[in-house]
Specification:
Strand content: 5-15%
CATH architecture of the largest domain: Up-down Bundle
Number of domains: 3
Structural class: alpha/beta
Strand order of the largest sheet: 2-3-4-1-5
CATH topology of the largest domain: Zinc Finger, Delta Prime, domain 3
Helix content: 55-70%
Largest sheet: 5 strands, parallel
Length: 384
């Protein structure tokens, strides 16, 4: 849907991305009010904790639809933050299922003259009759949200951030976008907040660079593991151990984090460096300090020379991840990366089947990879 006020009298905005849903719904509601000054407006809270509250909310909606405006003109209704169209216990209660089906029938036969209805909702079960009926009656906008489990979340996040910044008159370069998304992680609300901070930071300047991102953007908890992996890529033992300590400390209040998750982030980093080093050896890509030029090379890779396993296929790996890996791969020989992978795989066996403290296992692995004699310590001293 465009940013202009919708000509449709009935709009459904829904999805897992609560921030985007509420923002878009507010935009539509305000546009409708601006287009009908002096009309009636009703905001109805549709969040329900049980079947009784659902039925009460639906009764209020019917009353609002049937009540004519006091002074004629238009009437605008927002049925806000609805949470009983999904697959949870409340949504599946028989009384709720029947009431929602009745609502669909009422809306199908409703005469929309002078009335506009906006419904904003979280999860919706598309298999149910309500959604299929509303899909035919309303303009529907879906905001599925960002998830780290989605292989394309970075691309979606970059598109979202680019739109935010351009709406504020800013023009981010490709590396700045990629770096910001990597630092913040798959959180639409935080990405929007950081985009506003970034726009304020650059002031009257139109262009946004990666240096601006590094200066002002706050790393999200999702991205802190990337800081650990970057320290590994930079061959900086002190920094790697500091980031590891931060991650281990945050695990005390975040049950979604674990030592094995941190280990997999390190394995992924070494794997990416091995992959990109081999690609450069084969002449498939060239090392470049320009992110846009590097990303363009990845788009022209010959499909017949790429592995079928998606874990090793560069076409299925985010361009910025490979860009950083290419920069860091220069810090290692191929043999050193192979030894690092062996060390991390040994740590994996210890974490899964051993009795040692997980934090100690990771500290020992990083020390063995980065703290030996020769080049690792020299690189560490150069960056200290």
């Amino acid at each position: 849907m465009s940013d202009a006020a919708s000509p449709a009298p009935f709009v459904l905005v829904w999805g897992d991305d609560d921030f985007a849903v509420q923002r878009r719904a507010r935009q539509i509601f305000d546009q409708w009010l601006a287009a009908s000054p002096g009309g009636d407006e009703e905001l109805l809270d549709a969040t329900a904790a049980n079947s009784e509250e659902v039925l009460k909310a639906l009764r209020r909606l019917r009353e609002a639809l049937q009540t004519l405006p006091f002074f004629g003109g238009a009437k605008t209704i927002w049925f806000r933050s609805c949470n009983f169209f999904g697959e949870d216990r409340v949504s599946e209660a028989q009384a709720v299922v029947e009431a929602v089906a009745d609502l669909a029938k009422d809306l199908a036969g409703f005469r929309w003259a002078g009335v506009r209805l906006l419904i904003s909702a979280g999860k919706i079960d598309r298999r149910r009759g309500f959604y299929r009926a509303v899909e035919k009656l309303a303009e529907v906008e879906h905001f599925p949200g960002l998830s780290g489990e989605d292989r394309d979340w970075r691309d979606k996040a970059e598109t979202m951030v680019a739109g935010e910044l351009r709406a504020m008159g800013r023009r981010p370069d490709g590396e700045a976008l990629a770096s910001m998304v990597e630092q913040v992680g798959p959180n639409a609300r935080l990405l929007s907040s950081e985009a506003q901070k970034l726009a304020a930071y650059v002031g009257d300047r139109e262009t946004v660079t990666v240096a601006d991102v590094d200066a002002i953007v706050t790393r999200g908890r999702h991205a802190r593991a990337f800081a650990l992996a970057d320290a590994l890529g930079e061959r900086h033992l002190a920094r790697a151990l500091r980031h590891l300590d931060e991650e281990l400390w945050s695990m005390q209040s975040d049950r979604q984090k674990s030592e094995i998750g941190l280990l997999y982030a390190l394995i992924g980093k070494v794997r990416a460096m091995l992959l990109i080093k081999e690609m450069m050896r084969e002449g498939m890509v060239r090392l470049s300090q320009d992110y846009r030029g590097f990303a363009a090379q990845l788009k022209n890779l010959p499909a017949d020379r790429l592995p079928t396993d998606r874990r090793y296929n560069p076409a299925d790996i985010n361009a910025y991840v490979l860009f950083r890996a290419a920069q860091h791969a220069a810090n290692y020989t191929r043999e050193e990366l192979v030894k690092a992978m062996d060390e991390l795989l040994r740590s994996n066996r210890q974490l899964v089947g051993g009795s040692q403290d997980g934090g100690f296992v990771l500290q020992l692995a990083l020390t063995r990879i980065l703290g030996g004699t020769g080049r690792p310590l020299e690189a560490q001293r150069r960056r200290a």
